[in-house]
Amino acid sequence: MASNTKSGMVERSGKAAWLTHLGMVIGIAIVCFPIYLAFVASTWQQQDLIRPPMPLLPGGYFVENYSRALLSGINAPVWRMLFNSMVMALGIAFGKIVISLLSAFAIVYFRFPFRNVFFWLIFLTLMLPVEVRIVPTYEVAANFGMLNSYSGLILPLIASATATFLFRQFYMTVPDELAEAARVDGAKPMRFFIDILLPMSRTNIAALFVILFIYGWNQYLWPLLITTDPQMNTIVMGIKQMFPSGDDWVDWPVVMATAILAMLPPVAVVVFMQNLFIKGLVETEK
């Protein structure tokens, strides 16, 4: 009787797992099918796409279409827009992390007047996203001559109250004995920061890097305002400008090839850093 009960539990568990996996596969298929259609469209010629039915298998123009997209594009070469987006995303990610690490370190380990007031002032900037302060930010960037430049794309976006808060919370969990031991050994504050705190923060840094890289890569409104030169367009701006307005003709294979190329860097960052990303979200190293 007991063996029948156990076998029934295992059988029900097996069925539940099978249904769970089936649901996951269906969900992945629904999410990935539009991406697959975009890839298929990027491997055919224009006349093959505008004549129904749309092909569901890849065509033979992969090299030709992707070469045209990378080297010429529609408004600007896609390789140039990918490079601009890469510089902007890396600059924003590294800038936010470095500034947040140092800000949190100063707030937690240094004693100065109104320390908590300054922290909460930083935290209150979460209530003022870029869209709210975009006019004065643009005016400051223009006065400093940062239009159509990488500094203009990056510097106004590198402060991060969220990252500062997360690093502050992590530093507050570090035992005080570590700081005392470093002080007894004669380590300066920056030596303590570089040799002890920074290695302990590596998984948190990795998790934030993935999030901030994707944040920088997907920026549209700020690059649209700060750049007027097509050579400074980011890939998100380029894709938007490729879509037709009214009855304009559009080269859909090149547009779809550009969309596929635009997805590759963020996907590569997530894939290569997924282990550190997950550890940074679920673990706290001490």
Question: What does it look like?
Answer:
With 286 residues, the protein is mainly α. The chain has two domains: 2-67, no CATH class; 70-282, MetI-like (MetI-like fold). Mean pLDDT is 85; it is low at 5-11. It contains 15 helices and no strands.
Quick synopsis:
The protein is an all-alpha fold. The chain is built from 15 helices and no strands.
Task: Please indicate the percent range of residues in DSSP E strands (runs of 2 or more).
Answer: under 5%
The shape is globular
The percentage helix is over 70%
* Alpha-beta classification: mainly alpha
Count all strands and give the number. Answer: 0
CATH class of the largest domain: Mainly Alpha
Radius of gyration, whole Å: 25 Å
The CATH superfamily of the largest domain is identified as: MetI-like
> What is the CATH-assigned architecture of the largest domain?
Orthogonal Bundle
Largest sheet descriptor:
none
Which oligomeric state applies? single chain
| Cα distance spanning the termini | 49 Å
* Unreliable segments of 5+ consecutive residues: 5-11
Query: What is the helix tally?
Result: 15
What is the string of SSEs from the N terminus onward? Answer: HHHHHHHHHHHHHHH
Instruction: Indicate the CATH topology of the largest domain.
Output: MetI-like fold
What's the pLDDT, averaged over the residues?
85
The tally of structural domains comes to 2
